[in-house]
Each structure stands twice: as structure tokens, then as C-alpha cells.
Amino acid sequence: MNFPSLSDKAGVRDALLLNKVAGGLLASYHQQILRGASALSVAERELIAAYVSALNNCTYCCGTHTATARHFGVPEELVEELVADEKLTSAPEKLRPMLAFARELTLRHGSITRAYADAVYAAGWSEDALHDLILVASMFNFMNRFVHGHGISADDALMKERGRHLFEHGYAGLVESAEAEKNGGQVLQASEPA
What we know:
Elements: H1 12-16, H2 20-35, H3 42-55, H4 59-71, H5 78-84, H6 96-107, H7 114-122, H8 127-150, H9 156-169, H10 174-182
Helix pairs in contact: 3-4, 3-5, 3-6, 3-8, 4-9, 6-7, 6-8
């Protein structure tokens, strides 16, 4: 952990408390793009989150979102198989061009061309679906850096627990629940921003 004020067991929600206003907005954004209305299923969005995180070598996000995706029916070994095989043969055929787009956006974002989008459309996806994929992939490229910058880590058991929590509760209220836990169950009023 890179922040002495946070414990070695601190997670993302604890780091969000370092700036409660921004942290609350970020948690709400997660809720919207990962649980809100979308052309992509929740399982597909959680799989994309885990896949992008694996490509970025973010063990914490990959483990947590692989565990979350598993609760939505995604096989636990799928993320590892996708990272190992650029042809993405383990993925459902329709999802392959979406994952290829996410991979390119993550590893070589400057080389995204219309051909990647055309492959997505040829597989039967809409512009809304591609936009949602870009939102999720971009969010997790950001979050992987957020986690690495703060020095957040966890063991397998804790990542599975956090995945179960996200499955059951989603992302809304992450900051409030962390604050309540920190303050013995009481949520304190946020102070006005400076």
C-alpha cells in the first residue's frame, strides 16, 4: 500500500474515501456503465473488465472482476484463456470482435482503426454496444492505474469476497459503505468542497 493512512487490506472503496466527492462520482459511474441499461449483458461487461485488467497485469482488478463475472455465469478460467490466445477462440464467436477491440484499445490504443469497429458491426453488434464496450474498457484502463498507483492488493480469498459483494450489491454506495465501516457503522456528512 502506497498510502500510510490506508491499511494493507484496503481496497478500492477505501482509496475512494481519500476524496469522497470524486470517489462517490466514480462509484456512481461504475454503477451506470456496469449495471445500467446496455446492449451488453452484465456478465459481458464484467468479463470485459476482468479481461482488460488481465491485459494490464492488474491482479487485483482481474481477480475481483473475474470473481464477479463468475457469479453471472462466466467460467472462471475464461479470462486466462483469452489473454493467452489472441484469436480469442475460447470466447463466444459473437463476442470475439468486441474483445479484439478491447485488447487493441488497451494494448495499442493509437492503432484502433475503423476495421476493428466494422468487425464489431459485422458480428451483429450496434453502435450502442460498441460505445458501451469502450466505456468499460476505458474505465478499467483507468482503474488498473488507480489500483497500481495506490498500491492496492489482495489475496485470492479477499478478491473472491469482493467479487461476491459486487455481484450482490453492485457499485452504488461503495463510498458510503466504506465510510460507515471506517466509522463503526455511522456515515458522516461530507464537508463542503474547498
